[in-house]
Amino acid sequence: MTDSTRRSGADEPYPYAYGGGAGYPDPPAYQPQQPVTTPSGVTVWPGDGSGGGSGSGSGNGAGEDGGAFASEGAHRGEGRRRARVSRPVALIAAVAAVSALAGGGAAALVTNATQKSDTTVSTPVVNANSASHSGVSAVAAAVSPSIVEVSATGTSGQSTGSGVVITSGGEIITNNHVVSGADAIKVTFSDGSKKTATVVGTDSKKDLALIKVEGASGLKAASLGDSSKVAVGDQVVAIGSPEGLTGTVTSGIVSALDRDVTVSTDQGQGQDGQGPGGGGQWPFEFGGGRYNGDVGSSTTTYKAIQTDASLNPGNSGGALINMSGQVIGINSAMYSAASGQSAGSAGSVGLGFSIPVNTVKSDLASLRAGGSDSNT
Predict the structure, then answer these.
(1) For residue range 287-301, what is the model confidence (pLDDT) as tens digits?
(2) pLDDT tens-digit series, residues 37-75
(3) Cβ contact 175:330 at 8 Å
(4) b/e map of 98-111 (b: 16 or more CB within 10 Å)?
(5) Which of 31, 25, 28, 30 is nearest to 9 (CA)?
(6) Which of 58, 146, 177, 308 is catalytic?
(7) Is 177 a catalytic residue?
(8) Cα–Cα distance between 319 and 245 in angstroms, integer?
């Protein structure tokens, strides 16, 4: 016989007895769902295991059909109650997984916030063209092409100092005592090229001079800052040609403001005699003392920025620069600990002086017109 006498559902491979009847639930409207594994690795089942074996069964979407897993004689209501009990288990697991993800995200946000709080903001350097530099190196890279070596030759000897390019057409600011009495002037740029320059105007009372390179164009001009905003303690960089060493960079801070510095106004009296084997003078008076020789009978006094950035003979006319790459002063005098010793053997002891750049800017029109010395 092909008909089976087995009670329907007792040994069926599939747990549903279709067609209904006493003691059997109606067939489900859809197939049972599969188990769900949470991100934490826990497998969640749709029922409590009474109908599908211990720890096994279909997915958590069984819902009200969970009663179909019950043994023969189970009531539909009991199956529904068991299905309802499984829902909080799945919900708790899902909430735990979401909480873990949310917690990780919150931790990431806290970490990012902590890292950002330690980030320092640096002041951008004027004319800087490379993100690989920072601090003193950025200032040096940006401003060095605008600083030149000035060699002046006259009847009283040869002077070597520095200068600052202020226009692309070749105007250069330097100290009066660097070019005073010069018959010929040579300018050496940071790339090693040399050009001839002539004096446009001088102002011995401010120890300033304006020279111009012949046939120059496209030069990189320095940015002039505002010396009225300089404060004691500001970090600064000095660039010049001490002892003929073109493009030497030193750094320090502004150690004082408005220092009275006295220099000579006699033509040729204050010339720097640096260079190979040089032993000339760089005389000035400060605080009642006389340094690097005699300033002579004709002198002038100006208010200077004091710095501990190393300045040596040959830095005269070079730039004192803030950390934004702006020129805030023209270096003009160096303190020597031993009174009367020659400039050739003098060394920086942390006291240098610069003419404030605002003094330079206010004097430019006069210098371009020949300077105050042309009227005396």
Answers:
(1) 777 776 777 777 878
(2) 776 677 766 654 444 444 444 444 444 444 444 444 444
(3) yes
(4) eeeeeeeeeeeeee
(5) 25
(6) 177
(7) yes
(8) 15
